[in-house]
Amino acid sequence: MSEYRYDRLHNRWVIVGSQRAGRPHEFEEQVVRRSVDPCPFCAGNEHQTPDALAIYPGAADNGWSVRVVPNKYPAVEPSPAANGAAGNHELFASRPALGQHEVIIESPRHIASLSELTPDECTLVFSAYRDRLQVLQAAGQFRYVQIFKNVGAAAGASIEHSHSQLLALPHVPLHVADELENCRRYLQQQGQALLSALQQEELARGERIVAESPHLVAFCPWASRFPYEIWIVPRQQQPSFATVPSGEIGEVAALVQELIGCIERALGPVGYNFLLHSQPFDTSRYDYYHWHIELFPRITKVAGFEWSTGVFINTTPPEIAAEELRTARLPAGKNLTAVPNRKTS
C-alpha cells in the first residue's frame, strides 16, 4: 500500500510504496569501471589540472594524498568581469555568476569510490572539506558553500577518478534557505531543534536506524526521496561543519565510508551522491540547525512525474532499506573499505 509521507526538514511530500518496484527496468545499470588513460587526477598528471589550492601530504612517492584544485570548467568564477554585467529587466533579470568552483581529488590512485580509500586517506578528505569551509568563510566574499560528491554517470560524474566538488556562492540558495527556515520555525513552535527531535525519535523507534557512532546517527529518513537514502546527523546541535573538532573528523569519515560500503555490498557498485549541508557564512545565529550529510545511491530515475510536481516516488520503504543496510554492515574489526568485485586500475 503506497502512502504520502511528509518531510518536515524540506517541507515536501514523498510517495512511498513498494508496488512499483517490480515494474520492468526499475533499476539503473551498475557502474562499469572504465580505463582512462591518461586520467588528469592520477599521480604524475598534476600538470593537467590548475595549480593546487591545497595539498595534503601522503606516503606515496608523489607526495600527496588529497589535492584541492580550481575546477578547470567552472560553473561560477571569482571574477565578475568575466561574466558580463547585471541585467535588471523585469522578466529577464541576470547577474554575473560570481563564485568559486573547486575539485577535491581524493587519491593519487585511480579509484572510483570513497569506499576504496584507507581510513586515514578518507579522514584527510573530510579534513579538506572542513579546511576549505574555513578558508572560504575567512575570505569574506561568499555566503554559502555546497560540498557534494557524484559517483558514476547516473549520479552526474564526468570523471571516474574519485573526487568531490565545492561551489562557493555569494547568496544562500532558495532550497537551503527554506531548510533553514523550516528548522527555525520548528524551534520556535516546539522549543527543540528539528534535527535533534528527528534523530531522538528515530533512535527511540529504531526501525530506520542504519548505524551509530559516539557523535553521529545515521538513518533512512521517514520520507526518503530515493531507495536506500541515508542521513547522517550529529547527536549534538552543531550548525557548521567548519567547526567540527579535529578529533571527530575521523569519526565522520569512517561512518560515511562504512555506509557507502553498506550500499555497495547491498546493491553492487552503484553510482551515488552525497551532499554536505552546513550553515551559511554570516553573523546570524543558527542554534536551530545541524550540519548533516544526505547520501543516496542512484538506482532509480527521476522522471516526468517528479519533474512536473516536485513529488518523488520511492519504491523501497525506508524501513526495508534500513534493515537491508544493517544486514550489509561488516562485523566490528573487519576492513570497512573492502568492496567485493571491484577492480582498481
Characterize the structure shown:
With 345 residues, the protein is of the alpha+beta class. The chain has a single domain (39-77, 96-327), classed as HIT family, subunit A (2-Layer Sandwich). The protein is built from six helices and 13 strands. The chain has helices at residues 119-139, 174-190, 194-205, 246-267, 304-309, 318-327; strands at residues 3-7, 12-16, 54-56, 66-70, 100-105, 144-151, 163-169, 209-213, 216-219, 230-234, 272-277, 292-297, 312-314. Strands 3-4-5-7-6-11-12-10-9-8 form a ten-stranded antiparallel β-sheet, with helices on both faces. Strands 1-2-13 form a three-stranded mixed β-sheet. Strand 1 and strand 2 (12-16) form a beta hairpin. Helix 1 packs across helix 4 and helix 4 (246-267) packs across helix 6. The protein is globular. Mean pLDDT is 87; it is low at 20-25 and 335-345.
